[in-house]
Write a structure and sequence with these properties.
The protein is α+β, with helices and mostly antiparallel strands and about 475 residues long. The chain has 17 helices and 14 strands.
Length: about 475
Amino acid sequence: MTITTPNSGRIRAKDRVLPHPPYRLPVLGDVWDLHVTDSSQWGMRGAQKYGDIYERNIFGARVTYVSSPELLREINDDAKWAKFLGIPIRDLRTVARDGLFTAHNSEPNWAKAHAILAPSFTAPAMRSYHATMRECAAELIEHWDGRAGEWIDIPSDTNKVALEVIGRTGFGYSFDSFDRTDEHPIVAAMLRALTYINRAAYSHPVLERTVFREQRAQHLADVEFVNREVDAIIARRRSEGAGGHEDLLERMLTAEDPETGEPLDAQNIRHQILTFLAAGHETSAGVMAFALHYLSVNPEIADRARAEIDQVWTGEELRSEEVAKLRYVRRVVDESLRLWPTAPGYFRKANADTMLGGEYPFEKGEWVFIVLLQLHRHRLWGDDPEAFDPDRFLPERVRARHPELYRPFGVGMRACIGRQFAYHEIVLVLATMLRNYDLEPDPNYRLKVKETITLKPDQLRLRVTRRG
């Protein structure tokens, strides 16, 4: 059935008129307004200038930005709109191909991997990872104990603990993060790859092959290197035989898709491991770092979190079932994710010609970018959405909130599969940090946010002091 508008007949994208930056040029579009290194924050600033839906035109490509909870009622409906990889996630496929995060909806390995791995990411499954997560947190504490009085690079150390968690629970591999004095080669290559992808996302292929040819060559070499290293990890596990491991790799090597009876092939297992490395540890590390920043500059919130921790954590070790009882610490995590969702947005494309909100014509296959940074600062959050207030996530306030106002893990069938894993890990590590240390902020520091594909505080330093 052809969808029509009251005035113009068939839906046509060219009839869509949206606010946009001034000084638009023929052919070049809004290049005067183009930002490359902080594209997510650039999207947020645009929403604050131009409204809940606006567009930019870059070299003829239209990019629509949405931060309206009401419009998201339609956009987040899988019957009307679907996940779209977009930029720069599309370019992350050079690393992770058809991994869970980067697969196209039409690729069969996504459904197969999701069915095989979903049981490994349920709340009950966290019990099998808890001891390893606790061990990684303890190693961070030991690392900090040897650095009394020093200013600590917080994003670096949260990256270390998150990397160890995903390495050990994911595929039984330690990166020796707390013993090395240099960066692990796999980590260095992955970080360069993510930085390159973010920078090159809005570039042109001709520029990449000329002006940035050395960076492009390094990127291709990095991708080849991490593929080779991960394949070696998988091969070693295969040679050991099944059994004896309670990690994600064991499941990927032994479990079958309940619908087709097929296992994952070796190449897709590699893609899933690279997905965990690229999307798993960077996101968790960023949330921890942002939370530590806000806890350090809001000591009354840190004290309240510690009081809960001391009440719940009464034994020598924090037990798995106690993590869920740290409700205020969980609210600290949620509020950190509200202000700085480390995956700062997502893309959706129209399944059919549609009039979004009854007003904006989109043809089938056209896509929009959801600006989480602005959605999470929408006026519906109240008069001061920039204030850090974990009590925004009290149960009664969550129930009263617009259902589309908070989406840090995406939506629909393609929402983040690792949500429970991330919450358990982050709450456990933050509780361990707060139980053991007081946090002293650098009085001269003002929060700056660095973008690769994820977000993290830039140059955040804290001094930690052992609690008596």
